[in-house]
Amino acid sequence: xxxxxxxxxxxxxxxxxxxxxxxxxxxxxxxxxxxxxxxxxxxxxxxxxxxxxxxxxxxxxxxxxxxxxxxxxxxxxxxxxxxxxxxxxxxxxxxxxxxxxxxxxxxxxxxxxxxxxxxxxxxxxxxxxxxxxxxxxxxxxxxxxxxxxxxxxxxxxxxxxxxxxxxxxxxxxxxxxxxxxxxxxxxxxxxxxxxxxxxxxxxxxxxxxxxxxxxxxxxxxxxxxxxxxxxxxxxxxxxxxxxxxxxxxxxxxxxxxxxxxxxxxxxxxxxxxxxxxxxxxxxxxxxxxxxxxxxxxxxxxxxxxxxxxxxxxxxxxxxxxxxxxxxxxxxxxxxxxxxxxxxxxxxxxxxxxxxxxxxxxxxxxxxxxxxxxxxxxxxxxxxxxxxxxxxxx
Length: 393
Ligand SMILES: *Cc1c(COP(=O)(O)O)cnc(C)c1O
Prior knowledge:
CATH architecture of the largest domain: 3-Layer(aba) Sandwich
Bound molecules: pyridoxal-5'-phosphate
Shape: globular
Number of strands: 13
Radius of gyration: 22 Å
Helix content: 25-40%
Oligomer: single chain
Structural class: alpha/beta
CATH class of the largest domain: Alpha Beta
Distance between the termini: 40 Å
CATH superfamily of the largest domain: Type I PLP-dependent aspartate aminotransferase-like (Major domain)
Largest sheet: 7 strands, mixed
CATH topology of the largest domain: Aspartate Aminotransferase, domain 2
């Protein structure tokens, strides 16, 4: 039996895996200790649990557990990476390179740094949403201290050439950061293979709890990094504050489940994603995939539907949970900055849907969504006054 509404917004957040909830539960009750309490077993038990979680995440990303720093999420990790590198820099003039399609959690801190006098170059991707190593290379100056490029985009799922950019940064002695919140657990992400110095992760994107994340900091890079939060010297002095033990335990457990399921899950979600696309293409004309289909997360699809008003598209999909290319937050009903950056006209961006598939997506759900979306789009097109000429791609 199909359970409604169908959830296809796994890029926004994922449900916490029941195994993760089970692993976390004792740390709210019996094992409630403070991981910094050194003088009794309550503290030791909490600390051991945190260290196990650190090893679980370190194993997934192929690093030493001392290189993993727990935070409140990928937003904090990005802020710590960007602001931390800049504030630790002894250079008089500082330059940072980023990309127009980054998450707000990278672009907003960059804007703050810019207001503080840092020079920021925002590189534009091509029409497929991809950036090339050459484009990044051209942006580098003698003042560049940091390059930040996300591994996988949260709206169009495209995968940037991270290992090449990492190698480029390393050859210039520039610190390389990547926001890997969407990539973690969905594709192999091994920091050494990618030449990454700093990487941000979030538990709630990999079936862990909300409010926990991590920053990987490569030890051998000797990255000078200042904390955002001081007070107590937790996490090797980089992120003070009593550790969120249940959350961290859940993050570790979620990472370890991803590790064992990765290969199968990747195949399964990609098959369902392809079924979704071919279903829509079979039923509808004048649709177009936003972003490269080839260099893409297995669980993402982002489609523009020509010839209708975007507002009515989401409104008509009451039992399918997806995001549109209109509002990243409902308070901000503008066309997505990502779709804008890859040259999608506003009117088509607003008539775009982002489908994010995940661990509990079934083929029945996909077939239901294909049917729902196709009939809705057909109906809206009959009613619409928009012609194709209004929205040349
Ligand atoms: C979800 C997400 C974030 C924010 O992560 P939080 O843990 O919710 O702060 C940052 N970057 C990307 C690419 C994301 O998908």
